[in-house]
Design goal:
The complex is a heterodimer. By secondary structure, chain A is of the alpha+beta class. Chain A has ten helices and four strands; from the N terminus they run ααβαβααβαβαααα. Chain A has two domains: 193 residues, no CATH class; 94 residues, Alpha-Beta Plaits, CATH 3.30.70.3040. In chain B, the strands form two sheets. In chain B, strands 6-7-8-3-9-10 form a six-stranded mixed β-sheet, with helices on both faces. Chain B has a four-stranded antiparallel β-sheet with strand order 2-1-4-5, with helices on one face. The relative contact order of chain B is 0.21. Classes of the chains: A alpha+beta, B alpha/beta. Chains A and B meet through helix 1 and helix 8 of A and helix 2 and helix 3 of B.
C-alpha cells in the first residue's frame, strides 16, 4: 500500500518534470521571474547578516572604559576588582595602572613630544570592561550602575553608536520583512495564474479522471507538484543569483580592502539559510497552486 | 444489485427527465434500455454513477444509497463501475495504452501488474496491436473499443454503456454487442442504453423501455 503510494507520487513527480521540460521557455521565464523576485529580499537579508556580524565583532563583547578618581587608593582598586568579579554582567576586565597608560601614550606616534613635556602623570587609573550583553539597553544599564560607584570618575561608552546601528539593523530587517511579504504575494499570484491556465488546458483530463473515479487529491497532486517544483527552481535561481553576486562583490571588495588595508569579505548564505530559502520558495509555489486548484477545480464537474 | 425507488430527476431549467422510476437490476443481469432520444436513458445511467443526483427517491447499489452519497465517496463508487460514454471521452494527448492505463493509475494499482492488465483489456477488444497509436488515428469503431477497454480494465462489477453502437455500421455493432455478452457471462452486471432497434431483435435479455421519463411496461 505504502509502496503503491510512493510509486504514485514518484510517477506524478516525473510527470510534472516532463511537463515543465515540455514547455521550456514558459517554465524558464516563470522560474527566472520568481528567482529575481526572491533574490531581492534575500540580497538585503545577506547584507544585513553581514552588517550585524561586522558590528557583532566589535559589539559582541562591547568595551567600556572606567576612569577612576585621581586620589584613589590601592584597597579601593582591590574592592572594584572584587565587585566586578561578582557582577554577572561583566565577562572580563583589565586593570590599566596610570603608569602603564602614560607609557603607552609615550609610545604612540606624535604624542611622544607632548607626553615627554609633562611634569607629572595626568592620567587616572583605568579599567577596561567587557560586558556580557550587547544590547544597547543592557549596556546603558551597566554604564549607569558603574557610574554610581564612588571610586569612579567617569564611565566612557558610546552607547549611542550601538543604538544607531541597532536601529539601522531593525529598519533593515523591517524592509526585508516587507519585501518578503510583498514579493511572496506576487509569487503566489504568479503561481495561481499559471495553475489556472494549466487547469483550463487540462479540463478534459480532469473531467474524465473525475468520471472514472479519481479523488480530488489525485487530481490536485500534479498541480501541487508543479507549483512546488517551480517554486523550488525559483528559490534555486535566487540562491544562484545571490551566490554569484556575493562572489563578484567580494572580488571588488578585495581590491578596495587592499587599498585601505583592512579585511572585509561578505559571507555567503549559510547552509541553513539556503535550505530555508529553498523550502520557503517551494512552499510559496505549492501554496499558490493549492489556492488556484481550490478555486478552480470545483468548477469542473462532469455532466 | 441496482434498485431504483420512486426516482425522479428534474433539471434546474424545469425539464423532467425521469418521473417516478421503480426498477431493479439483479447482479449479473444484462439489461437493455431503449427509448427515443430525450426519453431519459442517459440520465438514468448517469444517476447510477452519481454523475447526476436524483431530485427525489433512492438509488441503492449493493446496499448503498447513491442518492445520499457524500461527495468524497463518489470516486470509490465510480471505481466499481465501468462507464462507456456516448461521446467516448478519450484523452487525445496520449496513446491508446495510456488511455486504458488511466483508471488503474487513479485507483493506485501496483505498477508491476498494470501493464499486463492494460494489454489484457486491449486484447479483449482487439486493439493490442495499436497500443502505441494516438486516438486521433483510430476509426470510430476502434475508438469505441478503446473506450470499452478503458471501462473494463479495472474489472468493475457493473458495466454501463450509453449508445455504444451509436454511429457504427451493423457489423461493428454486432461485434461490440458480443463483447458485452462475454463480459456478462463472467458475472458483470451490464446496462446498455440504445435506440438501435436492430440490436434488440435477437437479444435474449430484458428490455426496459423509457417514454418521456417513465418506464413503459
Amino acid at each position: 500500500m505504502i509502496r503503491a503510494w510512493l510509486m504514485q507520487h514518484g510517477f506524478v513527480f516525473f510527470l510534472t518534470l516532463k511537463r515543465l521540460i515540455a514547455t521550456p521557455v514558459t517554465s524558464l521565464l516563470s522560474v527566472i521571474v520568481m528567482g529575481i523576485a526572491l533574490s531581492l529580499p534575500t540580497g538585503i537579508y545577506v547584507l544585513m547578516e553581514n552588517l550585524s556580524s561586522i558590528s557583532g565583532q566589535s559589539a559582541s563583547s562591547p568595551q567600556m572604559s572606567l576612569f577612576l578618581k585621581l586620589d584613589i587608593k590601592k584597597e579601593d582598586i582591590e574592592r572594584i576588582k572584587q565587585r566586578m568579579e561578582e557582577d554577572s554582567q561583566i565577562v572580563s576586565f583589565q586593570f590599566i595602572p596610570k603608569d602603564a597608560a602614560l607609557h603607552q601614550l609615550q609610545q604612540s606616534n606624535g604624542l611622544a613630544d607632548i607626553s615627554a613635556s609633562l611634569v607629572r602623570n595626568p592620567l587616572p587609573d583605568a579599567f577596561i570592561v567587557h560586558a556580557l550583553e550587547n544590547t544597547p539597553e543592557n549596556l546603558e544599564q551597566l554604564r549607569v550602575a558603574m557610574q554610581s560607584w564612588p571610586e569612579i570618575e567617569h564611565v566612557q561608552f558610546d552607547s549611542a553608536w550601538a543604538a544607531r546601528l541597532n536601529a539601522l539593523l531593525k529598519l533593515g530587517r523591517f524592509i526585508v520583512l516587507m519585501l518578503t511579504t510583498l514579493l511572496s504575494v506576487a509569487i503566489i499570484v504568479i503561481m495561481f495564474n499559471t495553475i489556472r491556465l494549466q487547469i483550463l488546458t487540462k479540463r478534459d483530463e480532469i473531467e474524465i479522471s473525475k468520471l472514472i473515479g479519481a479523488t480530488d487529491s489525485f487530481i490536485r497532486r500534479p498541480f501541487l507538484y508543479f507549483g512546488a517544483i517551480q517554486g523550488l527552481a525559483g528559490g534555486a535561481t535566487a540562491w544562484l543569483i545571490m551566490t554569484l553576486t556575493i562572489r563578484a562583490m567580494n572580488e571588488e571588495l578585495g581590491t578596495l580592502a587592499q587599498l585601505y588595508d583592512f579585511d572585509l569579505q561578505l559571507q555567503q548564505l549559510s547552509p541553513s539559510d539556503s535550505i530555508s530559502l529553498l523550502s520557503f520558495s517551494a512552499w510559496l509555489g505549492w501554496l499558490g497552486a493549492r489556492l488556484s486548484v481550490a478555486s478552480h477545480l470545483w468548477q469542473i464537474e462532469p455532466r | 444489485m441496482i434498485i431504483f425507488k420512486n426516482v425522479s430527476k428534474r433539471y434546474p431549467d424545469g425539464y423532467v427527465a425521469l418521473n417516478n422510476i421503480d426498477l431493479t437490476v439483479e447482479s449479473g443481469e444484462m439489461v437493455f434500455l431503449t427509448g427515443h432520444s430525450g426519453a431519459g436513458k442517459s440520465t438514468l445511467l448517469k444517476l447510477i454513477a452519481a454523475i447526476e443526483r436524483p431530485t427525489s427517491g433512492t438509488i441503492t447499489i449493493s446496499g448503498q444509497n447513491i442518492a445520499q452519497l457524500k461527495l468524497g465517496a463518489i470516486p470509490y463508487l465510480r471505481r466499481k463501475i465501468g462507464f462507456i460514454f456516448q461521446d467516448h471521452k478519450l484523452l487525445f494527448d496520449r496513446n491508446v495504452f495510456d488511455n486504458v492505463l488511466l483508471p488503474l493509475q487513479i485507483s493506485n494499482f501496483d505498477n508491476k501488474t498494470v501493464a499486463g492488465r492494460v494489454r489484457a483489456a486491449l486484447d479483449k477488444v482487439g486493439l493490442l496491436k495499436k497500443e502505441k497509436a494516438m486516438p486521433i488515428a483510430l476509426s470510430g469503431g476502434e475508438r469505441q473499443r478503446l473506450c470499452i477497454a478503458r471501462a473494463v480494465v479495472h474489472r468493475p462489477s457493473i458495466l454501463i454503456a450509453d449508445e455504444p453502437t451509436g454511429n457504427l455500421d451493423i457489423e461493428y455493432a454486432q461485434d461490440i454487442m458480443s463483447m458485452f455478452t462475454s463480459f456478462n457471462q463472467v458475472g458483470v452486471t451490464v446496462l446498455i442504453a440504445t435506440h438501435d432497434a436492430s440490436l434488440l431483435k435477437d437479444a435474449e435479455h430484458r428490455i426496459l423501455s423509457l417514454k418521456q421519463g417513465k418506464l413503459a411496461v
